[in-house]
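On clarity, I found the account of how folds are encoded harder to follow than it need be. What matters is that the chain and its backbone geometry are given together, residue for residue. I therefore recommend that a typical entry be quoted early in the introduction. An entry of this sort, consisting of the sequence and the corresponding C-alpha cells, reads as follows:
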Amino acid sequence: MLVHLPVEATPSFLVGVRTYAWLGIDIFFVLSGFLIGTQLFKEVSRTGGVVLKSFYLRRAFRIFPAFFMVLGLYAIFPVLRDAPTMQPVWSFATFSVNFDFDPRVGRAFTQACSLCVEEHFYLFLPLLVLLLHHRISTRWTLIIAAAMVVAGMILRFTIWESQVGVLVDAGKLRDAFAVYLRDVYYPTYTRLDGLMFGVILAAARFFKPELCKRCAPPHVALPAGVALVVAALVLFSIRGPLAGTNLFLVFQAQLGAVAGFPLVSIGIALVLGAMLDLEHVLKRWPIPGAVTIATLSYSLYLTHK
C-alpha cells in the first residue's frame, strides 16, 4: 500500500521505506508458495493424490467473488478507479492482464498483475505435484530449481539489454520504466522466484524436517536471510545512469532486476523458516489489530489504490 502512495503525500520519515515497499509483493509470493505448497504436500502424502476439483473450487471461492465485484465496479463506474485509463476488462477477467501490461496505455488496477501471477501458480502447481511426486529425487528437484533461477536471470538480462537499456541510453527514461514494468516486473515467467522458493521451503520442512533443523536452525537462517535481502536491495540501488533522475525512487537497477529477485526470495524464505521455528516465542507477543488487518487484507489489496 505504501509503494502506491504518491510521493508528495508520503510522510518524510517513510519516503526511504517507500523506495523498497514493493518488497511486499515478493514476501507475499514466498508466503503463498509456502502455504499452498504445504497444503498440497500434506494432501498428496495422506491420500496419494490431489483432488483438483476441490482445490480449484476452494481457490475460486476465495478469490473470484471479491475480485469480480471490484472489477465490475471499476468497469461500470470509472470514477472509482485510481487512474482514468485501464487495460481491457477482458484481460483482467481472464487473469492475463500481467502479460503486455503497458502503463502508458492504462494504469488503473495495476495491483491485479500480482494476482494474475498467483492464479497461474494455483493452476499449475497441483498438476506439477501430481506429476512429480515420488518421481524425482531431492537432487533433481534442486537441479530444476537452480535451472529455473538461472533461466529467469538470463531472461531478465536479455530483456533489459535488448529493450530497457536501449531506451535508457537514448534518455527515454519514462518509456524505459514502462517497458521494465511491462516486460520484467509484471509477467509471470519473470517473477517465479518467490513462489518457487516458498514451495521449496514447504517441501524441505515437510519432507526433510530433520535436515532443515540441522542445516538451517534459526540462529543461522535468520541472519543469513536478512543478509541476502540486504544484498539484494543493494543491487537494486545501483542505478548507474538513472541516479539523480526523477525516477530514482522507483526505477530498479539492472543488477537488481537480474539477480535481485532470486536473492530477495531466498532471503525471505530463510527468514520465514526461522520465524516458523521461533513461533513458540513469537506467539507470546500478540500484535493488536493483526487479526483485523489479516481479515481485511485481500479487500485492502483490491481497493487501496
